[in-house]
Amino acid sequence: MASSEQLKQVTVIGSGNWRTAIAIHIAEKVRELKDKCDQKLIMQCKEETLENGKKITEVINKHHENAKYLPHERIPDNVVAEPAGSLCITNITHEVAEKVFCEATVGSHDDNHSEIVRELFDTPNFRLRFYPDIEIIEILGGLKNVIAMCAGFNIRAA
Prior knowledge:
Rossmann fold, 2 domains, 3-stranded parallel beta sheet, alpha/beta, single chain
């Protein structure tokens, strides 16, 4: 590999049974493609606390098993689980690009993750609000689209 080439980082977004199975499959290929891919496969997980009180990312990283969604299947050692959050933005893309004042809501169970996201996004033109329930952020993010469409249809009807 030439020194100017950079290894590709492979990430699986999600940790349900399907995404875990895909991570297992791809992790083996990542090892084969060591001249093209970073050997670590990142698995972005919605952080959950299991019945035993442990976080799902800790269990995946320590025991190499997704005990909740795909128990008894070994996850390769090069899969690294990391907690993920959710970002809900109600702004129009060109407004964000043109630095018109915008706000967004971030759902995250991890305070460290929230702080990193704040450092990346927070500017005088872009404000973030944080909420600890990712599921609510996802639901409300979908509902705002339905409400916006209905409002648009209603204006056309008038």
